[in-house]
Amino acid sequence: MRESCTAVVARNDVWQGVAASEPYETAWADEAVVFLRNLESQGAPEEARAWVQISADGIRWVDEGTSFPVPAQGEVTFCRLRNFGGYMRVKTILPPGASFKALLSIALKG
Amino acid sequence: MNDVRQLWTDPALGRFDPLPRILCYDDFNRGLNGYTALVGNYEDTLDTVLPGYRDMNQPMLSNGTHWDTGSHGGYGGTYALKVVTRPRPGAINMALKRLTFRKRCPIRLEAFLTFKPEATELQLSELDVRAFTLVFDIQDEGCRWMPHVRYLNALDGKPQKKWQFKCKTEQAPQIGNSGKTKSHHHFSAEGWQDIPNGSQEICYNEVATKYNWHYFRIDVDLGARRITGLQFNDKVLDTSAVEVMRFDSAWPNLAQLFNICWLVETDTSKRAFLYIDSVLLSGDFEHA
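C-alpha coordinates for the assembled complex are given below, as produced in the milestone run.
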Protein backbone atom coordinates (compact mmCIF):
# COMPACT_ATOMS: atom_id res chain seq x y z
CA MET A 1 0.00 0.00 0.00
CA ARG A 2 1.28 3.48 -0.83
CA GLU A 3 2.21 6.01 1.83
CA SER A 4 0.07 9.11 2.18
CA CYS A 5 0.12 12.19 4.34
CA THR A 6 -1.82 15.42 4.45
CA ALA A 7 0.39 18.05 6.02
CA VAL A 8 -1.18 21.22 7.39
CA VAL A 9 1.79 23.48 6.78
CA ALA A 10 0.07 26.78 7.68
CA ARG A 11 -2.75 26.95 10.22
CA ASN A 12 -4.33 30.36 10.80
CA ASP A 13 -1.09 32.03 9.66
CA VAL A 14 -1.69 35.63 8.60
CA TRP A 15 -0.40 36.13 5.05
CA GLN A 16 0.14 39.66 3.79
CA GLY A 17 2.50 41.32 1.31
CA VAL A 18 5.09 38.79 0.15
CA ALA A 19 4.18 35.56 1.93
CA ALA A 20 5.43 31.99 1.68
CA SER A 21 4.66 28.80 3.55
CA GLU A 22 7.26 26.98 5.61
CA PRO A 23 9.35 24.48 3.60
CA TYR A 24 8.00 20.92 3.52
CA GLU A 25 9.98 17.82 2.54
CA THR A 26 8.37 15.80 -0.23
CA ALA A 27 11.13 13.50 -1.51
CA TRP A 28 9.17 10.33 -0.71
CA ALA A 29 6.02 11.38 -2.61
CA ASP A 30 5.08 11.01 -6.28
CA GLU A 31 2.13 13.35 -6.34
CA ALA A 32 0.62 16.22 -4.38
CA VAL A 33 -2.56 18.22 -4.20
CA VAL A 34 -2.14 21.61 -2.55
CA PHE A 35 -5.23 23.11 -0.92
CA LEU A 36 -5.30 26.76 0.17
CA ARG A 37 -8.20 27.88 2.38
CA ASN A 38 -8.99 31.45 3.40
CA LEU A 39 -10.32 31.42 6.97
CA GLU A 40 -10.77 35.20 7.22
CA SER A 41 -9.55 38.08 5.12
CA GLN A 42 -9.04 41.82 5.01
CA GLY A 43 -9.19 43.66 1.71
CA ALA A 44 -9.24 41.55 -1.45
CA PRO A 45 -6.50 38.88 -1.35
CA GLU A 46 -8.47 36.96 -4.01
CA GLU A 47 -7.15 39.45 -6.56
CA ALA A 48 -3.78 37.72 -6.27
CA ARG A 49 -2.51 34.30 -7.32
CA ALA A 50 -0.39 31.85 -5.37
CA TRP A 51 2.24 29.66 -6.95
CA VAL A 52 4.27 26.59 -6.13
CA GLN A 53 8.02 26.77 -5.54
CA ILE A 54 10.45 23.86 -5.29
CA SER A 55 13.98 23.62 -3.94
CA ALA A 56 16.99 21.33 -3.96
CA ASP A 57 17.98 22.29 -0.41
CA GLY A 58 14.97 23.88 1.29
CA ILE A 59 16.74 27.24 1.26
CA ARG A 60 16.95 28.45 -2.35
CA TRP A 61 13.62 28.43 -4.21
CA VAL A 62 12.55 28.41 -7.85
CA ASP A 63 9.10 28.66 -9.40
CA GLU A 64 7.71 25.22 -10.30
CA GLY A 65 5.40 26.70 -12.93
CA THR A 66 2.00 25.96 -11.37
CA SER A 67 -0.17 28.77 -10.02
CA PHE A 68 -3.71 28.95 -8.66
CA PRO A 69 -6.01 31.70 -7.30
CA VAL A 70 -5.79 32.95 -3.75
CA PRO A 71 -9.26 32.08 -2.37
CA ALA A 72 -11.80 34.59 -1.16
CA GLN A 73 -12.89 34.40 2.48
CA GLY A 74 -14.43 31.03 3.27
CA GLU A 75 -13.29 29.44 0.02
CA VAL A 76 -10.66 26.89 -1.00
CA THR A 77 -8.47 26.69 -4.10
CA PHE A 78 -6.09 23.94 -5.15
CA CYS A 79 -3.58 22.63 -7.65
CA ARG A 80 -2.21 19.19 -8.61
CA LEU A 81 1.51 18.46 -8.86
CA ARG A 82 4.02 15.79 -9.90
CA ASN A 83 7.83 15.66 -10.21
CA PHE A 84 8.49 18.24 -7.50
CA GLY A 85 11.67 16.90 -5.90
CA GLY A 86 12.64 17.16 -2.26
CA TYR A 87 11.21 20.42 -0.94
CA MET A 88 8.01 22.35 -1.68
CA ARG A 89 6.37 25.60 -0.58
CA VAL A 90 3.66 28.01 -1.74
CA LYS A 91 4.28 31.71 -2.27
CA THR A 92 2.08 34.70 -3.02
CA ILE A 93 2.25 38.47 -3.24
CA LEU A 94 -0.92 40.12 -1.99
CA PRO A 95 -2.18 43.58 -2.99
CA PRO A 96 -1.61 46.49 -0.59
CA GLY A 97 -4.08 46.36 2.30
CA ALA A 98 -4.99 42.72 1.67
CA SER A 99 -4.33 39.88 4.10
CA PHE A 100 -5.90 36.57 5.06
CA LYS A 101 -5.61 33.78 7.59
CA ALA A 102 -4.28 30.84 5.60
CA LEU A 103 -4.89 27.13 6.09
CA LEU A 104 -2.50 25.42 3.68
CA SER A 105 -2.73 21.63 3.33
CA ILE A 106 -0.50 19.48 1.13
CA ALA A 107 -1.93 16.02 0.39
CA LEU A 108 0.95 13.74 -0.61
CA LYS A 109 1.04 10.15 -1.91
CA GLY A 110 3.92 7.96 -2.89
CA MET B 1 15.48 -10.55 30.80
CA ASN B 2 17.88 -12.82 28.90
CA ASP B 3 15.15 -13.13 26.24
CA VAL B 4 15.95 -9.58 25.19
CA ARG B 5 19.34 -10.79 23.96
CA GLN B 6 17.55 -12.59 21.15
CA LEU B 7 17.00 -9.15 19.62
CA TRP B 8 20.71 -8.41 19.37
CA THR B 9 21.05 -10.09 15.99
CA ASP B 10 17.90 -8.48 14.58
CA PRO B 11 19.15 -5.81 12.15
CA ALA B 12 16.30 -3.45 13.04
CA LEU B 13 16.02 -3.98 16.80
CA GLY B 14 19.54 -5.05 17.76
CA ARG B 15 20.57 -1.48 18.58
CA PHE B 16 17.87 -1.18 21.28
CA ASP B 17 17.72 -2.48 24.86
CA PRO B 18 13.96 -2.87 25.35
CA LEU B 19 11.97 -4.10 28.32
CA PRO B 20 10.30 -7.52 27.74
CA ARG B 21 7.15 -6.28 25.93
CA ILE B 22 7.57 -4.18 22.79
CA LEU B 23 4.62 -1.79 22.62
CA CYS B 24 5.46 0.02 19.39
CA TYR B 25 8.34 0.39 16.99
CA ASP B 26 8.37 3.53 14.88
CA ASP B 27 10.58 3.16 11.82
CA PHE B 28 10.10 6.29 9.73
CA ASN B 29 10.94 4.45 6.54
CA ARG B 30 7.38 3.18 6.97
CA GLY B 31 5.66 6.55 7.18
CA LEU B 32 4.84 8.86 10.06
CA ASN B 33 3.82 6.00 12.40
CA GLY B 34 1.15 8.12 14.05
CA TYR B 35 3.33 11.14 14.75
CA THR B 36 1.48 14.34 13.97
CA ALA B 37 1.41 18.04 14.76
CA LEU B 38 0.14 19.47 18.01
CA VAL B 39 -2.71 21.92 17.64
CA GLY B 40 -3.37 24.01 20.71
CA ASN B 41 -6.82 23.60 22.23
CA TYR B 42 -9.51 25.87 20.74
CA GLU B 43 -13.22 26.63 20.72
CA ASP B 44 -15.15 28.30 17.91
CA THR B 45 -12.10 29.84 16.28
CA LEU B 46 -8.39 29.05 15.94
CA ASP B 47 -7.78 32.54 17.32
CA THR B 48 -8.38 31.08 20.81
CA VAL B 49 -5.24 28.90 20.58
CA LEU B 50 -2.64 30.01 23.14
CA PRO B 51 0.22 32.00 21.53
CA GLY B 52 2.83 29.36 22.31
CA TYR B 53 1.02 26.82 20.13
CA ARG B 54 0.26 28.96 17.08
CA ASP B 55 3.53 28.32 15.23
CA MET B 56 3.29 24.55 15.38
CA ASN B 57 2.88 22.56 12.19
CA GLN B 58 3.21 19.09 10.76
CA PRO B 59 6.35 16.98 11.14
CA MET B 60 7.73 15.56 7.90
CA LEU B 61 9.53 12.56 6.49
CA SER B 62 13.04 13.71 5.66
CA ASN B 63 15.88 12.17 3.69
CA GLY B 64 18.16 14.82 5.19
CA THR B 65 19.08 16.61 1.98
CA HIS B 66 21.56 19.50 2.19
CA TRP B 67 22.85 21.98 -0.36
CA ASP B 68 26.47 20.84 -0.18
CA THR B 69 26.32 17.05 0.11
CA GLY B 70 22.87 15.96 -1.03
CA SER B 71 20.91 13.38 0.90
CA HIS B 72 22.24 12.24 4.28
CA GLY B 73 19.61 9.54 4.87
CA GLY B 74 18.79 7.87 8.17
CA TYR B 75 20.48 5.56 10.66
CA GLY B 76 18.66 2.71 8.96
CA GLY B 77 17.21 3.36 5.52
CA THR B 78 16.44 6.67 3.86
CA TYR B 79 13.94 8.54 6.04
CA ALA B 80 13.71 10.10 9.48
CA LEU B 81 10.98 12.07 11.20
CA LYS B 82 11.88 15.77 11.08
CA VAL B 83 10.46 18.41 13.44
CA VAL B 84 11.19 21.99 12.36
CA THR B 85 10.74 25.34 14.14
CA ARG B 86 9.92 28.65 12.55
CA PRO B 87 12.96 30.90 11.95
CA ARG B 88 12.48 33.07 15.03
CA PRO B 89 14.49 33.01 18.28
CA GLY B 90 12.66 30.91 20.85
CA ALA B 91 10.33 29.25 18.33
CA ILE B 92 9.30 25.71 19.28
CA ASN B 93 7.71 22.89 17.35
CA MET B 94 6.47 19.47 18.43
CA ALA B 95 5.64 16.09 16.96
CA LEU B 96 3.58 13.76 19.08
CA LYS B 97 2.10 10.28 19.07
CA ARG B 98 -1.15 9.73 20.93
CA LEU B 99 -1.60 6.41 22.78
CA THR B 100 -3.31 5.13 25.89
CA PHE B 101 -1.74 2.74 28.40
CA ARG B 102 -2.81 -0.81 29.29
CA LYS B 103 -0.75 -1.28 32.44
CA ARG B 104 0.66 1.12 35.00
CA CYS B 105 3.99 -0.60 34.56
CA PRO B 106 7.62 0.39 33.97
CA ILE B 107 8.04 1.63 30.40
CA ARG B 108 11.13 2.48 28.35
CA LEU B 109 11.38 4.77 25.35
CA GLU B 110 14.48 4.50 23.16
CA ALA B 111 15.28 6.51 20.06
CA PHE B 112 18.02 7.38 17.62
CA LEU B 113 18.02 11.08 16.88
CA THR B 114 20.05 14.14 16.05
CA PHE B 115 19.56 17.90 15.86
CA LYS B 116 20.88 20.61 13.56
CA PRO B 117 20.17 24.20 12.52
CA GLU B 118 19.13 25.05 8.98
CA ALA B 119 22.36 25.51 7.02
CA THR B 120 21.65 29.04 5.79
CA GLU B 121 25.20 30.28 6.31
CA LEU B 122 28.66 28.77 5.96
CA GLN B 123 29.36 28.77 9.67
CA LEU B 124 29.65 26.06 12.30
CA SER B 125 26.36 27.25 13.90
CA GLU B 126 26.71 24.84 16.82
CA LEU B 127 24.89 27.20 19.20
CA ASP B 128 21.87 27.87 16.98
CA VAL B 129 19.67 25.06 18.28
CA ARG B 130 18.54 25.91 21.81
CA ALA B 131 17.15 22.57 22.97
CA PHE B 132 15.38 19.35 22.18
CA THR B 133 12.86 17.93 24.60
CA LEU B 134 10.95 14.74 25.36
CA VAL B 135 7.64 15.00 27.21
CA PHE B 136 5.19 12.29 28.20
CA ASP B 137 1.63 13.44 28.77
CA ILE B 138 -0.01 10.87 31.06
CA GLN B 139 -3.22 10.61 33.01
CA ASP B 140 -4.11 7.83 35.42
CA GLU B 141 -7.09 7.60 37.72
CA GLY B 142 -5.50 9.98 40.18
CA CYS B 143 -4.00 12.82 38.24
CA ARG B 144 -2.48 14.15 35.06
CA TRP B 145 1.30 14.14 35.13
CA MET B 146 3.95 14.99 32.58
CA PRO B 147 7.61 13.97 32.74
CA HIS B 148 9.71 16.61 30.94
CA VAL B 149 13.42 16.27 30.09
CA ARG B 150 15.47 18.30 27.66
CA TYR B 151 19.00 18.77 26.44
CA LEU B 152 19.73 22.49 26.63
CA ASN B 153 22.35 23.06 23.96
CA ALA B 154 22.59 26.86 24.07
CA LEU B 155 20.77 29.85 25.48
CA ASP B 156 21.05 33.38 24.14
CA GLY B 157 24.14 32.41 22.18
CA LYS B 158 25.98 30.85 25.10
CA PRO B 159 26.75 27.12 25.29
CA GLN B 160 24.86 25.18 27.99
CA LYS B 161 25.23 21.50 27.02
CA LYS B 162 23.31 20.00 29.91
CA TRP B 163 20.20 17.99 30.73
CA GLN B 164 17.29 19.58 32.51
CA PHE B 165 13.83 18.68 33.79
CA LYS B 166 10.72 20.70 34.45
CA CYS B 167 8.16 20.11 37.17
CA LYS B 168 6.77 23.65 37.54
CA THR B 169 3.20 23.80 36.30
CA GLU B 170 1.91 26.60 34.11
CA GLN B 171 -1.35 28.53 34.27
CA ALA B 172 -4.18 26.70 32.48
CA PRO B 173 -6.69 29.33 31.32
CA GLN B 174 -10.13 28.42 30.01
CA ILE B 175 -10.42 28.38 26.23
CA GLY B 176 -13.69 29.69 24.77
CA ASN B 177 -16.93 30.00 26.72
CA SER B 178 -18.26 26.47 27.16
CA GLY B 179 -16.32 25.77 30.35
CA LYS B 180 -15.19 22.45 28.87
CA THR B 181 -11.79 23.41 27.43
CA LYS B 182 -8.59 24.69 28.97
CA SER B 183 -5.00 24.78 27.81
CA HIS B 184 -1.54 25.20 29.29
CA HIS B 185 1.79 25.99 27.64
CA HIS B 186 3.64 23.46 29.78
CA PHE B 187 6.91 23.38 27.80
CA SER B 188 7.54 27.13 27.91
CA ALA B 189 11.05 28.43 28.59
CA GLU B 190 10.54 29.17 32.29
CA GLY B 191 10.93 26.78 35.16
CA TRP B 192 13.53 24.33 33.91
CA GLN B 193 15.98 22.89 36.46
CA ASP B 194 19.36 21.24 35.94
CA ILE B 195 19.65 17.49 36.42
CA PRO B 196 22.53 17.00 38.89
CA ASN B 197 25.76 16.07 37.10
CA GLY B 198 23.84 16.48 33.84
CA SER B 199 26.50 18.18 31.71
CA GLN B 200 27.26 16.38 28.45
CA GLU B 201 29.24 17.10 25.31
CA ILE B 202 27.42 15.79 22.25
CA CYS B 203 28.94 15.10 18.84
CA TYR B 204 27.78 18.01 16.69
CA ASN B 205 30.38 17.39 14.00
CA GLU B 206 32.25 20.14 12.16
CA VAL B 207 29.80 21.50 9.58
CA ALA B 208 26.10 22.29 9.95
CA THR B 209 25.21 19.71 7.29
CA LYS B 210 27.04 16.78 8.90
CA TYR B 211 25.10 14.90 11.51
CA ASN B 212 25.65 11.87 13.67
CA TRP B 213 22.92 9.71 15.17
CA HIS B 214 22.61 9.53 18.95
CA TYR B 215 21.04 6.99 21.30
CA PHE B 216 18.41 8.27 23.74
CA ARG B 217 16.70 6.28 26.50
CA ILE B 218 14.22 7.29 29.17
CA ASP B 219 12.57 4.99 31.71
CA VAL B 220 9.35 5.92 33.48
CA ASP B 221 7.45 3.96 36.12
CA LEU B 222 3.79 4.60 35.38
CA GLY B 223 2.80 3.19 38.76
CA ALA B 224 5.20 5.30 40.82
CA ARG B 225 4.81 8.36 38.54
CA ARG B 226 8.58 8.79 38.36
CA ILE B 227 11.39 9.00 35.84
CA THR B 228 13.63 6.08 36.74
CA GLY B 229 16.32 6.27 34.06
CA LEU B 230 17.84 8.56 31.45
CA GLN B 231 20.69 7.81 29.07
CA PHE B 232 22.18 9.60 26.07
CA ASN B 233 24.88 7.73 24.18
CA ASP B 234 27.39 6.61 26.84
CA LYS B 235 26.15 8.89 29.63
CA VAL B 236 23.73 7.43 32.19
CA LEU B 237 22.21 10.18 34.30
CA ASP B 238 21.15 9.94 37.94
CA THR B 239 17.44 10.75 37.91
CA SER B 240 16.84 10.34 41.63
CA ALA B 241 16.37 14.13 42.02
CA VAL B 242 14.24 14.52 38.90
CA GLU B 243 10.61 15.41 39.56
CA VAL B 244 7.73 15.25 37.10
CA MET B 245 5.13 17.92 36.40
CA ARG B 246 2.01 16.90 38.29
CA PHE B 247 -1.50 18.30 38.60
CA ASP B 248 -3.71 17.84 41.64
CA SER B 249 -6.41 16.03 39.75
CA ALA B 250 -7.34 14.33 36.51
CA TRP B 251 -8.52 16.44 33.56
CA PRO B 252 -11.80 15.67 31.76
CA ASN B 253 -11.75 13.30 28.78
CA LEU B 254 -8.13 12.15 29.20
CA ALA B 255 -8.45 8.79 31.00
CA GLN B 256 -5.40 6.51 30.39
CA LEU B 257 -3.80 9.19 28.22
CA PHE B 258 -0.26 8.35 27.12
CA ASN B 259 1.25 10.79 24.62
CA ILE B 260 4.86 10.86 23.45
CA CYS B 261 5.95 14.39 22.56
CA TRP B 262 9.22 15.44 20.91
CA LEU B 263 10.09 19.14 20.75
CA VAL B 264 12.83 21.29 19.30
CA GLU B 265 13.57 24.95 20.00
CA THR B 266 15.74 27.42 18.14
CA ASP B 267 17.98 30.00 19.80
CA THR B 268 18.35 32.19 16.70
CA SER B 269 16.51 33.37 13.61
CA LYS B 270 17.27 30.05 11.91
CA ARG B 271 15.01 27.02 11.79
CA ALA B 272 16.04 24.24 14.17
CA PHE B 273 15.70 20.63 13.04
CA LEU B 274 15.16 17.55 15.20
CA TYR B 275 15.61 14.34 13.21
CA ILE B 276 14.32 11.10 14.74
CA ASP B 277 15.35 7.95 12.90
CA SER B 278 13.43 5.42 14.98
CA VAL B 279 11.64 5.03 18.31
CA LEU B 280 11.03 1.90 20.35
CA LEU B 281 8.56 1.87 23.26
CA SER B 282 8.62 -1.15 25.55
CA GLY B 283 7.15 -2.11 28.89
CA ASP B 284 7.31 -4.65 31.66
CA PHE B 285 3.75 -5.83 32.30
CA GLU B 286 4.85 -8.47 34.81
CA HIS B 287 6.15 -5.80 37.17
CA ALA B 288 3.15 -3.46 37.04
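The CA atoms of residues 4 and 70 of chain B lie 37 Å apart. The radius of gyration of chain B is 19 Å. Further analysis is deferred to the final report.
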